[in-house]
Structures
1.
Amino acid sequence: MKASQNHWIFVLVAALATASACTSSKPSEGGSEATTKSQAHGSSTLTIKGSDTMVILAQKWAQAFMDANTGKVIQVSGGGSGTGVAALINGTADLANASRSIKDKEQKQLLKRRGVEAVEFRVALDALAVYVPSANKIEALTIPQLKKIFRGQTTNWKEVGGEDMPIVIYSRENNSGTYAYFKEHVLDNDDFATTAQTLPGTAAVINAVSKDQGGIGYGGIAYAEGVRTVKVAADGGEPVEPTMENATSGKYPLSRFLHIYSAGEPAAIAKEYIDFVLSDEGQKVVEGVGYYPLPKETK
């Protein structure tokens, strides 16, 4: 009798141990946590990080995609193009939004960390606009004039044909793709003035400029509310408005593409999402937000 009882106790313990092993959600040793998360998310969740310039556009794309694909979840956050690319490199984002091209050193870091190269998708066109308050009478500025203003060498509006008023510079933070683009294409990679006030997003720049009669700032064309954009002239060229036609044709000197980057060729939900972004429906979202859809030959 005692031996029989011991036998049934052993069977019961073994059964409980087997059940526990089958139902446990704790990852085993050896790094299976990522596998567990992958199983939990499957191919139905996509994490996108990056450009503050693109964050509203990306949120609109994500919502439209989820509306058309029940059960699929897209998580979008900003932080700057540099933040998005860094997240792609370390694997905490599936896709990175960037308002600038990826840097060579970032490509090398991605290849070293994840064993793949970044794949670039041009997803929209932007005219990087220069903003002044609505009451400012300045109609146009040349790129050399802008360089002197943002370098701190021109400090009063009367020096460029405006009123006798100090110029107050508003800029993006240095992890921003918009900052990097403006620094490269306007300042020739020289430093911004030490007096420039850096703000975390284009919306913050616009808000500051709209309330400061001496203010000037820059950012994506989609944010032009409560301020006025000035025409921009390349050195020796004619002043050009930041319109869709001028950006598409390349006449506007500060037009640029907006990008999505993936680590290697996108698959599953990432590919579905990018295909949607590049579709006619996705490009209508671009126009609705205030950026410019891709020229047909670019898509």
2.
Amino acid sequence: MTAIALLQITGSGGAAGLLIQVLPIAAIFLVFYFLVIAPANKQRRKTAEMLTALKKGDRVLTSGGIYGTIQGVEAEVVYLKIAENVKVKVARSAITGIITGDAAE
């Protein structure tokens, strides 16, 4: 028998039938939440904290792959020194990470 025929035979099972139909959708949503949404929110929060903590003298990496040292910080702009006598103005959101320890060399 087909699935539609089986549903018609069982009738409208009331609350139990509704629960059986909604339960798989709820389970899929929960799995999706814990595998995709929660980690993305955690990463977004971590990045926002890192961007607010930027200060002069930090070594950073931009989304374009440029390493530099912060020379100045404004609301939405960061001034990076990328070489001797070379400074660039970069959007704060373009900073992808702070370089620490051995990676700074």
3.
Amino acid sequence: MKEDMYENVATVPVEDMALNEGMTVAELVEAMYRSGGFTAKKVGVAADILRRMFSDEESVNFLSFPACIISTGTRGIIKEMVRRRMVDVIITTCGTLDHDLARIWKDYYHGDFLMDDAELYHHGVNRLGNILVPNESYGLILEEKLIPIIEEIYATGKRTFSTSEIIREVGLRLNDESSIIYWAAKNDIPVYVPGITDGAFGSQLWMFRQDHRDFVIDLLKDEQELADIVFPAKKSGALMIGGGISKHHTIWWNQFRDGLDYAVYLTTAEEYDGSLSGARVREAVSWGKVRENARYVTVEGDATITLPLIMNAVLAEMKNK
């Protein structure tokens, strides 16, 4: 007789959330998990998986994310994860370098999604969602500050760099504890940017090379470094925020060790169009990028909301244990 897989499925009751004065973030996330409700429960599941992942001493842990959130205060959450050495490898986009560095030297500002973009253009202000980035806070300041740093690195005599190497060299020359790149360099956490030319940081590298033809960024050296990290790993895990090249490079490399053991994905993308960004973690199982017995969850929602909730809950629980 075929076993009825649904025979004992309804066993955990849904619990109502309460409005409790003084409730901690960790208590709130736990209540969200017990509520059983849609994305609220997924936030709780993600916190539980990440606690296990960060506590697993055998796991090499990846963090991937897109640049856009680094223009916001969510940069502080990422910075704290790096400062506390909660991850071993970062894979991101060139814009992350742009925003992280630019915000060391200049401010970004509050704006609105409905502002007149033509008017902003005529005032020399770029709009990133509801964040305002004046020209002097982005391209101009990066050109002013980065070229002298690159010249200093070049003067050491080294001519060929992987992206992680050039990013580390820049990070070592910073003196600002708000910076992700600063803490990554200080804590020897490699930062890989497979699309290094797709942003202002990459443009400065290209401009410098116009007068220094022996200056080379070797992308294949990055791949060798990643191979040296992935192949010996007993286990691996990843917190992936958003999609695109940073997400794919993370799961792509982990397929070479038969997939991630832990995977948490935060996304706003839809899967109906077949996009990599919209693909749920379960799809990666079919490619061998996530193990079929892995602990994984996809959390739908804006990462500027979900990530602070999840990581504050994770940190509180790990501290208590």
4.
Amino acid sequence: MTKKPRSLDLTQVTEWDDGRLRRKDDFLAAEEPLEIRVGEHPLSVTMRTPGNDLELAAGFLFTEGLVQRREQILRLESCTPEDVADRGNVVQATLAPEATPDFEKMRRHFFAASSCGICGKASIDAVRSRLLRPPNPDFRVSSDLLVGLPGALRSSQDVFERTGGLHAAALFDAAGALLVLREDIGRHNAVDKVIGWALREGRLPLSESVLLVSGRGGFEIVQKAIVGGVPVVASVSAPSSLAVQLARELRLTLIGFLRGRRFVTYAGDDRVVQSAPARRS
């Protein structure tokens, strides 16, 4: 029997409320390691929230440049190797010969923790050297559409509503319709799940889409969006300086502090069509 991914854990806690104590059940976001293998070779270990693991692995392989198209992933499956105690915590990929890494010559294997999606990449040069193409320059999005996206994101975050402990990445089309939403303890994992979904569904490049992420818009989020062909990335918090630099260099529209009727455009403001200000009574 296949083990169902567990995205929630139940625990007993003590709640202090204005001097009153009580014991209660509380939900926690699950966090477990996932090992991604190419053939028999370990490639990456990431701390993630179980669920959509094949999408996560596919997105990781694509955004890190190991594959350039869906057909290069010949097989992708969850497996239970004899040397792994936890069922379902390994995804094994079989890649086309031209995409299979030369592990004898690789200088490092990838390791990603839930707080960092680009461990070992100390500078923007690693992304620049991949000769990534700027996203669709003709895509436009209205400011009114943008300010409505966080509400759509929150209303669809099932696990967050019960735990308050997960990041989300959501993909919207040009009309503001939600295409896919994924949650994870790591914001970069949530983005990889979205990109992996698009890769497996044959939807890349995402040249007519807006990516909205909870939390901050970090460098790894911008990098993954550019690889996926996303022209507009928005976050409810602040971007990092390196994220802004990369967005400006590769002409991606980067928006931060998307809250209520306000947002800040850090790069690519030509894609944002201004709507009339709301009337105040």
